[in-house]
Amino acid sequence: MIKTVAWEKDRVILIDQTKLPAEKTYVICEDYETVAEAIKTMIVRGAPAIGVAAAMGIALGALHSTASTYGAFKEQFETICHAFAQTRPTAVNLFWAIDHMKGLVIVHGDKGVEELKSLLKNEAVRMGEEDIAINRRMGAMGNELIPDGARILTHCNAGALATAGYGTALGVIRAAHEAGKSIEVFACETRPFLQGARLTAWELKESGIPVTVITDGMAGYAMCKKQLSLVITGADCICSNGDVANKIGTYGLAVLAREHRIPFYVAAPLSTINPACGKGEGVSIEERDRTEVTHIAGQRVAPEGVDVWNPAFDITPSKYISAIITEKGVVTKPYKRNLGKLRTKSR
Prior knowledge:
Elements: E1 5-8, E2 11-15, E3 26-29, H1 32-40, H2 47-63, H3 70-85, H4 92-107, H5 113-143, E4 151-154, H6 169-178, E5 184-188, H7 195-207, E6 211-214, H8 219-224, E7 230-233, E8 237-239, E9 244-247, H9 250-259, E10 264-267, E11 273-274, H10 291-294, E12 295-296, E13 299-300, E14 313-316, E15 323-326, E16 329-331, H11 335-346
Parallel strand pairs: 4-5, 4-7, 5-6, 7-10, 8-11, 10-15
Antiparallel strand pairs: 1-2, 2-3, 8-9, 9-14, 12-13, 15-16
């Protein structure tokens, strides 16, 4: 299994996703600033992986704290958490992880500094292990929706590389493959960062799952020609009404799937749900560097001086989503009520 994020010898180890598929290398992070920069520059990416990396980065920063009192430690700890909060604004799992680690420090304010450091380190490692277990449960839930012989379209990368391991949308696909189903995956290239062509195709090929890469603009034609059975994606934020923020281009695929009467599924852990965000309009959409559009692999492909708009995500309204697959069950409409019930049960 691909190890995306790991804690080894009090260092955070990240597979460098900017180098894949040409080169499989790892970034060794010995301080929290390096982890935060890796999240910002997409060395590590995907909402669950970002959450785990942030938790480990926060623990790493805490480990190096020079504070001797709880008050001084908490002040340094807040600075560390703030650095991670500035990295990727759309990924709900990032802020979930930050809040979770903050909560530990508050609840255990009666403990000594060294004990707090150990507590944070152990919790970050546990969160990584739990993420893999969650993804496997999600895969088992979603497998029930995948028919034998399915031809599945996915967008961006929601696999082991986007999580601590196994994957969300690709976790469902893996589960179907492991169950012996005959499936074929079509991966949109996912401009401008090419996560589908570079990462999803690489993961699936490594796992022995048949995959065909298509350009983003081909999806409608593939549906029209009845080449696809269903669409499944991950999510970076799920609003309480079921609206989903995911990689730019997801909204268009959902509309096309509705037009062609193809199921459109979203797979994400409960930690991706933001109950404080009522609908898609409330999601903060990250704007990324213009060179991601004007250049490919460092080579300019657009004229000098042209304007660029590069939002990393779009919003898919819940009306286009057939079901949301979580580790606690498959949720269908009405999403506001059913997501709320699921979250209440899981507490």
